[in-house]
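Appendix B.2, paired examples.
Example (i):
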Amino acid sequence: MPNTLPTRDGPRVNEEIRAAQVRLIDQDGEMLGVMSARDALARAYDVGMDLLEISPNAEPPVCKITDFGKFKYEQQKKANEARKRQKVVEIKEIKVRPNIDDHDYEVKMRQMKSFIEEGDKVKVTLRFRGREMAHQDLGVKVLERIRNEMAEAVKVESMPRLENRQMIMVLAPK
């Protein structure tokens, strides 16, 4: 009879273990071998601990004598640590104009490089005003210049595209 995975969160404990035979590991980490689940449960209760199913898909399932409350606490601690280390990728926006001055351009490039180094994506928005719409080629040149200068550090996630009066390009760190 194949084992089914636990239905609730986490492994099965004590009477929830359905297998007839289990491979038992005691509280000190010693392998005690294969025995009936009833004997394993009795041994766990003798030392005042719980029988915890560690590997339900093994044949026979592996169970360990441990304190379930302590086990749950350790799992929670590991989950919190993992959550703490997780980096949320943000999208930072840089706005430029088609006739941007060289110094302004360099300042924006430095800012973009710092965002990319932090692991964030950068959305470059190029805004056209008034008659600038007639000279979209100037905007494309600015975005191409940005893309060429950032080429070794980024991959272009979305190529420059026109939306209403602005061109948008998204860069992501490699």
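Example (ii):
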Amino acid sequence: MELKEKLIASFMAFEERVDVDADLHNIRTSAIQNFESKGFPTKKEESWKYTSLNSLLKNDFTVFPKNENTIQFADVKKYFLHEIDTYKVVFIDGIFSSFLSSTTHDGIDVCLMSSALNKPKYKMIIDSYFNQIANKDESLTSLNTAFASEGAYINIPKSKVTDKPIEIMYFSTGSEAALLVQPRNLVIVGENSHVQIIERHQSLNENAVLTNSVTEIFAQKRAIVEYYKIQNDNHTASLIDNTYVSQQQESHVHVNTFSFGGNLTRNNLNFYHFGERIESHLNGITIIGEKQHVDHYTLVHHAQPNCESFQDYKGIFSDSAIGVFNGKIYVEKEAQKTNAFQKNNNILLSDKATINAKPQLEIFADDVKCSHGCTIGQLDETAMFYMQSRGIPKKEAKALLMYAFSNAVIESIKIPELKQRITKIIANKLGVKLGFDL
């Protein structure tokens, strides 16, 4: 049985396993019907032109894990930001781990999506936010919505600054030969509030895993959201990450995506403006090799005047790695005084490495500042020669140039301990030890 048919057949059994009200049932039913109609995306679709899922879909994925697994903190400590205290929402094979988690309802809600979906006291919030900004026509988002039951639920009330960052961690144990997991996250940040969130998906062995994740982020007036995605998984793990961001007046949202590992990674990042004087920041670093594939698809929809958006994506590709950047800025007629900037710079370290870049601007307003730039090249041989002439070995010189190339995005990290962690990952990817601390 093909995966599509398997999922459709599993839907009825899934709904019998979870308690849902009529409204949620209707949302799920509509979503599975959309997925049944459209199926998995193919390269015939313009937005998926350079990314094929065919090799992934040949796996016989288990939709529901047969066993509930446990892991010890010592075995996964290195994946957490253990240098500082954080709230933690941890899942093992898609199932919540209370042992590894540190949740709270003390002034803020850092807890489970299943609780929010099934408890009456959350119904008003779920009706107001769940599936409100997610693209209901996108097939993989619809598939996630149909099976949405577990993930992180974060609600920061008005005028609250979280006292420590929040980590959302998804571990796959490999207890199944191939596993499909579909986490659903909902983040609501109230007026004048501030939150820092780190999200990571990590496989613990070499069995195949496909994660189809959806995150909805709602930033109310003057809210500040810093969201960090760390993607440094095994070569048998694939991730399709759909993130939708709704911003109200004067809110600032930063999403930083660090793609260092995995088999196939697709990041769909969509920002929607619903007020004036909004700032959106989309930053990313991709460093991959071998036959890894990373695809960034971004959209910033400017619908109101006097707003700004900044995109800065850096890519370093070696061996036979493939990178894709498809960034779109859409400015409606009413969105006068928009300032939108998009930059995508790439370095190819191998003749077999590939980058497909497609920056796009659609502008219907006449009083705007919008620009995009894209570069694809190799390391500067003159700079390499200069550094070597000053006694720096070739390998270290090469690594320093690549680190400098990525530095603007690294500097955007506002959590010092995370900044150090990302620097160490980059050094490991480049195969050197950087002789300085940040």
